[in-house]
Specification:
The chain has about 450 residues and is of the alpha/beta class. It is built from 17 helices and twelve strands. The strands form two sheets. The chain has a seven-stranded mixed β-sheet with strand order 9-8-7-6-10-11-12, sandwiched between helices. The chain has a five-stranded mixed β-sheet with strand order 1-2-4-3-5. It is globular. The structure holds NADPH dihydro-nicotinamide-adenine-dinucleotide phosphate (NDP). The site of NADPH dihydro-nicotinamide-adenine-dinucleotide phosphate (NDP) has 26 residues, from helix 9.
């Protein structure tokens, strides 16, 4: 599963070997760390303090992990039990910040990989947020609203003792949207008797920020647009394939259509749709957010579209631009080769770690554009940071104000990644640039703060 190491630095190799020995059963976490450490080689070699103070060894170890039982009663009266997690990874530059994922595939490895990525992502936003992540193997799909509420209440009954507006501020992720955040916030308020910005992604009537719902998808397109323009390209007239049909995918569709692209395929975990005329994001929004139905019902709205069972085939649909917005490791080497053979000019990641190491190697060998998730999907957490600012000020900004700040942040992240890559002799390698730029700020803070 892991790539063959091209890394030579003895210190980085020893950190990785140690981690592999301790975390052998955490493949996603090891994959995320290895990808970052490879990029950090020139940085560690240029500044001996990172090794002397063992900054990397400290950074790959979470400050704290909380695992807990989440018992709840289903609609038939049966007692169910799920497992809850919160990984508080790094607080060097601010309170822990990162989403909660409710999906049957959630385990410690997944939460640790997401938490580790979050450290560097949050650093890239330039806002004062540390890295954390959490979730549960609970599956909200097919559950009634009452069941989801009882689960969220039980989850928060334990989580509330570990979080707070200045300690750890969770948000949404896969399976955690406006409904779940509302139930979680309601329970936190009930137990702690305080109305604070302890969660982001809240509803607008109780402290949420305008444009937070759209932020990850919009931010992804602002980032992609900056990268395309820097390489003499644009969204104009491009065929775009977006995997997933959740929060990130829907609003990536909306923004890339506004920027002149045409979204011709989208998916859910059962299958994908192809509509060469262009998929209207409002139809997907209705199917997914209002009806909570499967994507194949798109054919009820657009009978001329095609539905294919099985989600992985979406990458065989010829396109100019690919935006994976579903889940980790959804583009492997074969899918990457197919995209490249079909003339794809760039892969812009909306989901976290959607490309395997083999896929990334294929993009690099082919010289196509690649936007790594920790930079290109940082718009969600950046806007969560803006929600925290508004909560602290007890003010609400307009949609246009938040959107303009988001656009500025995403363009700034692209510029910072490009500059870091160039400074360390890897011009154009936005993946390495993102890892380096994200790392430097956190590492500097860790050096200042001592052991
Ligand atoms: P949602 O739950 O809203 O949507 C997830 C989408 O991906 C759904 O279409 C879902 O299909 C599909 N999906 C999920 N798991 C799988 C799987 N194992 N195989 C195939 N398809 C799958 O989640 P989000 O849109 O919020 O998140 C999508 C990605 O973006 C995740 O990687 C998340 O970590 C990342 N992200 C999200 C941010 C946010 O602000 N929401 C911020 C930054 C990153 P189905 O409905 O069938 O399950």
């Amino acid at each position: 599963m892991l790539t063959t190491m091209s890394m030579k630095n003895a210190y980085l190799l020893s950190v990785l070997d140690d981690l592999k020995a301790k975390s052998a059963h955490e493949p996603e976490f090891l994959q995320a760390v290895e990808e970052v450490l490879e990029s950090l080689e020139p940085v560690v070699e240029a500044d001996p303090r990172y090794e002397q103070q063992n900054v990397i060894g400290r950074m790959v170890e979470p400050e704290r992990i909380v695992m807990f039982r989440v018992p709840w009663v289903d609609d038939s009266g049966k007692v169910q039990v799920n497992r809850g997690y919160r990984v508080q990874f790094n607080s060097a530059i601010g309170p822990y910040k990162g989403g909660l994922r409710f999906h049957p595939t959630v385990n410690l490895s997944v939460v640790k990989f997401l938490g580790f990525e979050q450290i560097l992502k949050n650093s890239l936003t330039t806002l004062p947020m540390g890295g954390g992540k959490g979730g549960s193997d609970f599956d909200p799909k097919g559950k009634s609203d009452a069941e989801v509420m009882r689960f969220c209440q039980s989850f928060m009954t334990e989580l509330q003792r570990h979080i707070g507006p200045d300690t750890d501020v969770p948000a949404g992720d896969i399976g955690v949207g406006a409904r779940e955040i509302g139930f979680l916030f309601g329970q936190y308020k009930k137990i702690r008797d305080e109305f604070t910005g302890v969660l982001t992604g809240k509803g607008l009537s109780y402290g949420g920020s305008l444009a937070r719902t759209e932020a990850t998808g919009f931010g992804l397109c602002y980032f992609a647009d900056a990268q395309l323009r820097d390489n003499g390209q644009s969204f104009q007239g491009k065929k775009v394939v977006i995997s997933g049909s959740g929060n990130v995918a829907i609003y990536a569709n909306q923004k890339c259509t506004q920027l002149g692209g045409k979204v011709i395929a989208m998916s859910d975990s059962n299958g994908y749709i192809v509509d060469e005329k262009g998929i209207d994001y409002k139809v997907i929004q209705e199917i997914k957010e209002v009806k909570r139905a499967r994507i194949k019902t798109y054919l009820d709205y657009v009978p001329s579209a095609k539905y294919v069972e099985g989600c992985s085939g979406i990458w065989t649909v010829p396109c100019d631009i690919a935006m994976p917005c579903a889940t980790q490791n959804e583009i492997g080497e074969t899918a990457a080769d197919t995209l490249i053979a079909n003339g794809c000019i760039g892969v812009f990641e909306g989901a976290n770690m959607p490309s395997t190491p083999g896929a990334i190697a294929a993009y690099q060998a082919a010289g196509i554009l690649f936007a790594p998730a920790k930079a290109s999907n940082a718009g969600g957490v950046a806007t969560s940071g803006l929600e925290m600012s508004q909560n602290s000020e007890r003010l609400s900004w307009t949609f246009e104000e938040v959107d303009a700040k988001l656009k500025g942040i995403m363009e700034g992240i692209y510029a910072a990644c490009a500059a870091a890559a160039e400074r360390y002799g890897m011009k154009g390698n936005i993946q390495a640039g993102a890892n380096i730029a994200g790392f430097l700020k956190v590492a500097d803070a860790m050096l200042w703060q001592g052991i």
